[in-house]
Write a structure and sequence with these properties.
148 residues, elongated, mainly alpha
């Protein structure tokens, strides 16, 4: 019979594949199954936190990332502990701010807003620029033709 760790690793691999296919809910079920069994792989809880955050389940995301941090702290100081501490701080802040900025909008509207938001931090989007340039070029061509 496979060891508990190998079962957790196998579920994590299966969940990663499901995430890659866009099956986030099914992947979350596998990660949660690992967590119910007392999984000691911080990766499991990091992925749970990422999915919870994407679903605006911030209190659950905070709890999951805190579990990942606790596991890594037991292993001793590392760069991963520092990274997880920053994630915990960021998620706690987002969870504290969430009621005031998200309560008014239903989930569907939040999803629509998210899909129209700029894709990268600090990067301006060029959505629709080509169309505007095409119209301007067409107008300029018509004006030039009219002048000739």
């Amino acid at each position: 019979m496979p060891s508990q760790h190998s079962q957790w690793f196998a579920r994590n691999e299966q969940a990663e594949a499901l995430e890659a296919e866009g099956e986030r809910h099914k992947a979350l079920q596998l990660y949660e199954q690992n967590a119910r069994e007392g999984c000691t792989l911080s990766f499991t809880y990091e992925r749970m936190a990422a999915i919870y955050r994407a679903e605006d389940r911030l209190p659950d995301a905070v709890a999951a990332i805190e579990n990942a941090l606790a596991i890594e702290k037991e292993r001793g100081p590392s760069a991963k502990v520092v990274r997880l501490q920053k994630s915990v701080k960021s998620l706690r802040k987002a969870a504290a701010e969430a009621p005031s900025r998200r309560r008014a909008a239903p989930k569907r509207e939040r999803m629509e807003r998210r899909s129209t938001a700029p894709s990268g931090k600090g990067k301006a989007t060029k959505k629709g620029c080509f169309s505007v340039l095409l119209i301007l070029f067409s107008l300029a061509s018509l004006m030039a033709f009219a002048l000739v």
